Amino acid sequence: MNLALPIGQASALLPDPDWWRGAVIYQIYPRSYQDSNGDGIGDLAGIIHRLPYVASLGVDAIWISPFFTSPMLDFGYDVSNYRDVDPMFGTLGDFDALIQRAHELGLRVMIDLVLSHTSDQHEWFKESRSSRDNPKSNWYVWADAKPDGNPPNNWLSIFGGSAWQWDGERGQYYLHNFLTSQPDLNFHEPEVQDALLDVARFWLDRGVDGFRLDTINFYIHDAKLRDNPPLAPEDRNATIAPEVNPYNFQDHLYDKNQPENLAFLERFRSLMNEYEDIAAVGEVGDAQYGLEIMGQYTEGNKRMHMCYSFDFLAPNPITGTRTAKVLRDFAQIAAESWSCWAFSNHDVMRHASRWNLSETEIRLHLALIMALRGSVCLYQGEELGLTEAYVSFEELQDPYGKQFWPKYKGRDGCRTPMPWSSDGPNGGFSDAKPWLPVAMEHLARSVTAQEADEDSTLNFYRNLIAFRRMRKVLAKGTLTLLDASDDVLTFTRNMEGEAAIFCAFNLSATTQIARLPSNDWAEIVGLGFTAERQEGVITLPPHQAFFAEN
Q1: Per annotation, catalytic residue among 94, 104, 214, 398
Q2: Contact 152, 143 (CB under 8 A)
Q3: Which residue among 19, 70, 282, 409 is buried most deeply as judged by most CB within 10 Å?
Q4: Which residues contact residue 410 at a Cβ distance below 8 angstroms, ignoring those fewer than 6 apart?
């Protein structure tokens, strides 16, 4: 399927300030999408080349992971210049061309802004560390050592060890929630907030349609630098390396999630409101208070439009009971909020492997997420049914994996290059050796192989995305839970002026029964699922779904 439009054609986007509500957003990890210049690393020109494919999926927008100038110690999440493109990805001209081409194809473009921290190579940090009285001396989080030389408190880094790094040049510790080369900005300093809002304005002026805001709840720390209390073992949970990372041993009351952040988010929203049809999704990284924070950060129309949920990025498999609990908790804690659901992204094991899903189960899970109230993020390659790739320690790039190997193998297994063709060894990604190896088992699932198969996972994704787009109630309607057990989940979606939709899912390996609310529901056929209806009783074979409208 090719939706290519002539270069230079006017934007195919229609004005819609509410476009984000219920949108399907496709995440692109640029290093691994398409290499255009033969250096083994994906780039912006490569993304431009593949945009017709993305448009053919029927998604509403793309989210591009960081492409800013960076030493790449955390692969772009350590920014050394917010206002330029790293040469490995191209130029600002390439980015402008990407925006134009995406808009021609009817795709909106969201970019990943990393505001909580910079690289230690950023000019701001170089100046800040040079003395205690320079103009940017307070732009980062600096603190004196304790009398015995230890760090000022017990805060931990997500990447292991203390969140404080001694700097001999300045004679103080600086805070880093991630790598030691990623010092945290001090949002208590008004000039820092102003500078970051200017960064956002720079990209809004270039035509972006919105932002994915990385680690949005890490922006502001406790000004008193109080110690975090311990977290009871039974309460420890996380989506990344929970079994090996002591970060999960603390209740993170003071190193993030501070109430002062709400005022900054309101300033950010005010800036976005100066432009048309802009939206932002905030990544809330918190295993204990995620829903509560999401509710606060998206309350009303003055903060973020939506928040990125980690509820379904966890290791434990999807069940009807757990899904219903997430939906009920969200409705109770964040009733006026809007969530953005995802099963996979660049930080967690691909869900096909994380939950050990068969081809049939992959399709069932897609049907479920497409039927939920909220927006949806799809991660590149999941539409092909890609599994987690094995990356040997010798080929590993991720600093997180190197730190905790071998119990935790890092995030590279979900970041390997996109397989465009079945021809080896690089699957059409690059003519050179890729920065990460192409998984040989991915070649059989390549785009070209699946394009030719009407019953492929790729075409199933297209059909289900189209199903959601054709029924406004699925994108923007309310959700009413009917029945929930570990095996079966049923609910209705409702919206004034639209036909209601009944949704039933058998999440088990045995045949299950679901019941319609009444007999006056018409089955929606042609979605690729099998079920038998007798009066108001639906017999669902293993891992099958049923949809009807009224």
Answers
A1: 214
A2: yes
A3: 282
A4: 391, 396, 398, 399, 400, 401, 402, 404
3-state SS of the chain: helix, strand, coil percent to 5? Answer: 30, 20, 55
d(CA 477, CA 21): 10
Amino acid at 517: P
Contact 143, 176 (CB under 8 A): no
* Identified catalytic residue from 148, 169, 274, 336: 274
- Residue pair 185/195 in contact (Cβ under 8 Å)? The answer is no
Q: Examine the residue annotation and report whether 260 is marked as an active-site residue of this protein.
A: no
- Residue 71 in contact with residue 182, Cβ under 8 Å? no
CB 213 within 8 A of CB 280: yes
The yes-or-no answer on residue 274 being catalytic is yes
Alpha-carbon distance 405 to 352, whole Å? 22
The type of residue at 391 is V
Contact present, 505 and 529 (Cβ < 8 Å): no
Helix (H, G, I), strand (E, B) or coil at 425: coil
pLDDT tens per residue, the chain (550 residues)? Answer: 444 444 445 678 999 999 999 999 999 999 999 999 999 999 999 999 999 999 999 999 999 999 999 999 999 999 999 999 999 999 999 999 999 999 999 999 999 999 999 999 999 999 999 999 999 999 999 999 999 999 999 999 999 999 999 999 999 999 999 999 999 999 999 999 999 999 999 999 999 999 999 999 999 999 999 999 999 988 887 766 667 889 999 999 999 999 999 999 999 999 999 999 999 999 998 888 888 999 999 988 999 999 987 889 999 999 999 999 999 999 998 888 899 999 999 999 999 999 999 999 999 999 999 999 999 999 999 999 999 999 999 999 999 999 999 999 999 999 999 999 999 889 999 999 999 999 999 999 999 999 999 999 999 999 999 999 999 999 999 999 999 999 999 999 999 999 999 999 999 999 999 999 999 999 999 999 999 999 899 999 999 999 999 9
Q: E-strand spans in 299-363?
A: 306-308, 339-342
CB 300 within 8 A of CB 334: no
Per residue, what are the HEC states of 359-399?
A: HHHHHHHHHHHHHCCCEEEEECCHHHCCCCCCCCHHHCCCH
Rounded to the nearest 10 degrees, what angle do helices 290-297 and 320-333 cross at? 40
